[in-house]
Design brief:
Layout: H1 5-23, H2 34-56, H3 61-90, H4 93-107, H5 111-117, H6 135-184, H7 186-191, H8 197-208, H9 210-213, H10 222-239, H11 249-264, H12 270-275, H13 278-285, H14 287-303, H15 311-316, H16 318-337, H17 344-367, H18 389-395, E1 412-418, H19 420-432, E2 438-444, H20 455-463, E3 466-470, H21 476-489, E4 493-497, H22 514-517, E5 521-522, H23 526-539, E6 544-545, H24 547-551, E7 558-559, H25 577-590, H26 592-609
Parallel strand pairs: 1-2, 1-3, 3-4, 4-6
Antiparallel strand pairs: 5-7
């Protein structure tokens, strides 16, 4: 295929959009759609290479995969190698284990599946994953495993018309699936090939039908410039967030826009003139390496700081990204893509062994849970070194889920309603004092739209001596509605456990000496601070348990460690066993409703130990 420099310019636009999105630039709130642009370009170019070879009778699947290996693997492996020692030095066990999983998944081109199983793409946790962005390479490589074989079979069956029919059928089915999955499984819809194949298919269709559609608007014609401008407008509106990303509307806009640019952009007029501008072409040539390096640089910039780096810092890193990208393009990409300079055998040996080694390192980090045993600050005690102890700890209170209260009059009945933060409260009660006289029932409501009820819940509401509501986030009107519903059925003690958050990142403790480490503090994320202040003001101190208020110092920052040098939270939101004991002692001593609960429980406990009382709780005559 003839070289078209405007395609490299389009790559530059796509990679800039992705980089600015990951840097946190508000104007590029949908800059992640730059990946959609890359998918369309890939579908266009790969289909062009494959069909031209099939028609010429020179198709070789081995040669196709050799080109893919030379294009993708060397630069990717170098980035993975560069990230590994930094991760070992800078990451706490949980993030280090996640990094190890990413190493293995990236080596196997399955990081999109790993992200689906763990953090997803848009969660805060993903921004601390240096290899998070390789999910898109996984999608492309999975496509490359299927496309050449499928197109070869279609060509043998019915020539180029069969290829066109096959591509159109796949694209239509994939698009229909994506529309269906957008609201039902949005994370999978974003990350997996079945709901992304239509974008690659759109690029392939643009290539296959370009001769026919260009008859309507021949190159260099005014009509072609108008269509190219429409394509640039659609793509730009999508990247800038001016096409709302609801369902697949924004992806559709960027896909159609990119296809129009591929079909009609010319280097001498319209938007094609900008795309063919030499600086844009130069950035497009190094766009693959720029894409590879931007996320690790941004991730490690976040990892070394307790607070989110300011936007100025992130923007200042962009020249560094493009500098490294140029070095990678010049000294890694270019040499290894040239068969005349380096034959396939050394490429396969060097990068095959390197990929296997990186995958093995990833497995070690996974199996050792990021060398968890080396961190006593995360262990509840010297004898508890199970890396899952802090994860499983929050799941423990699920044993009370949906449980009806007994008829035993000698227990204090406590109904706890909410999400994982409500389970944290139960753990605080368990760890902070002798609560054997408290009978818990837990009712899980995952979000504000979750208003499940049942006869058991209503019965528990009428019987409960105390009702506790705790959830991670608002909005405030959701909490208020739930309080109103609780008050309509229960007249006992009522408490709302305030939200909590221990900052954006705890990995930065690794850069501190022990003396500095245990005195380190973090500022809660703004959304949690805002919700906490709104709840405290609206609900009032007689009901609201302001955990962050009890913990914060004069600067509004929260401690990372308990006084005995244990992490209060491992994941910045939920408490460890030590954290539960520490915060539990504070809130049960400081808040009147919880103090009453503890006092009532203690009275019952003392009575149960007093021979003067019968098992029914009545004084013996």
């Amino acid at each position: 295929m003839p070289y078209r420099k405007e395609i490299d310019g389009l790559r530059a636009v796509a990679v800039f959009a992705v980089i600015l999105y990951h840097a946190g630039v508000p104007a590029f709130a949908q800059g992640y759609l730059g990946v959609d642009v890359f998918f369309v370009i890939s579908g266009y170019l790969i289909t062009g290479f494959l069909t031209s070879e099939l028609e010429a009778g020179s198709f070789s699947i081995a040669r196709f995969y050799e080109r893919r290996v030379r294009r993708i693997i060397p630069a990717l492996v170098v980035v993975m190698i560069a990230c590994t020692p930094l991760a070992l030095i800078l990451m706490l066990p949980d993030d280090l284990q996640n990094f190890g999983q990413s190493l293995t998944a990236t080596a196997l081109f399955a990081n999109n599946v790993l992200l689906l199983m763990t953090s997803g793409y848009f969660e805060l946790e993903a921004s601390f994953k240096p290899l998070m962005h390789t999910w898109s390479l996984a999608v492309e490589e999975q496509y490359y495993l299927i496309a050449p074989i499928l197109l070869y079979a279609a060509f043998r069956f019915g020539g180029k018309p069969a290829i066109k029919g096959t591509i159109c059928a796949i694209a239509l089915v994939s698009f229909a699936f994506s529309v269906w999955a957008a609201s039902r499984m949005p994370v999978a819809n974003f990350l997996l090939l079945p709901s992304r194949a239509w974008e690659l298919g759109a690029g392939a269709a643009a290539l296959l039908f370009q001769e026919r559609v260009r008859r309507f608007a021949p190159p260099q014609s005014r009509r072609a410039d108008i269509l190219a401008s429409a394509g640039a407008g659609l793509t730009g509106l999508a990247l800038l967030g001016l096409v709302t990303d609801s369902g697949v509307s924004a992806a559709l806009a960027s896909t159609i826009g990119t296809a129009l640019l591929l079909l009609y952009a010319q280097p001498t007029s319209g938007p094609g003139r900008f795309l063919a501008w030499q600086p844009a072409v130069g950035l497009g040539l190094i766009s693959y390496s720029a894409y590879l390096y931007h996320q690790p640089i941004f991730a490690f910039a976040r990892i070394v700081s307790f607070d989110p780096p300011p936007i100025t810092t992130m923007l200042a890193l962009i020249p560094v990204i493009f500098g490294l990208a140029w070095l990678s393009w010049r000294y890694v990409e270019q040499p290894f893509r040239d068969r005349r300079k380096i034959s396939l055998r050394p490429v396969a040996k060097v990068f095959g062994f390197a990929s296997a080694g990186l995958a093995a390192i990833g497995l070690v980090l996974h199996v050792t849970s990021g060398f968890f045993s080396q961190w006593p600050e995360l262990q509840a005690s010297a004898g508890e070194v199970d890396a899952r102890q802090n994860i499983d700890f929050n799941y423990g209170p699920l044993i009370y889920s949906g449980r009806g209260f007994t008829a035993d009059p000698s227990t204090i009945k406590v109904l706890v309603v909410g999400d994982s933060y409500a389970r944290d409260f139960i753990n605080m009660a368990h760890e902070s004092y002798n609560d054997q006289s408290l009978e818990f029932s837990y009712w899980e409501l995952k979000d504000c739209a979750d208003n499940r009820s049942s006869p058991t819940l209503q019965n528990n509401l009428t019987k409960a001596d105390f009702v506790v509501l705790a959830q991670k986030t608002g909005p405030l009107d959701c909490i208020s509605k739930r309080l109103t519903a609780i008050r309509s059925s229960n007249h006992g003690g009522l408490a709302v456990i305030g939200t909590k958050n221990f900052g954006a990142n705890l990995n930065a403790v690794r850069l501190l000496s022990p003396a500095q480490r245990y005195a380190a503090t973090v500022r809660p994320l703004a959304e949690f601070e805002a919700l906490n202040e709104a709840c405290a003001a609206s609900i009032g101190p007689s009901i609201y348990v302001d955990i962050m208020g009890l913990l914060r110092d004069k600067a509004g920052r929260l401690p990372i460690f308990t006084p005995d040098h244990k992490f209060i939270s491992e994941d910045r939101n939920h408490v460890t066993k030590a954290g539960a004991a520490y915060i539990g002692q504070l809130i049960f001593a400081a808040h009147p409703v919880l103090a009453d609960m503890a006092k009532a429980g203690q009275i019952v406990h003392d009575r149960q130990r007093d021979p003067a009382y019968s098992a029914s709780g009545q004084r013996r005559l």
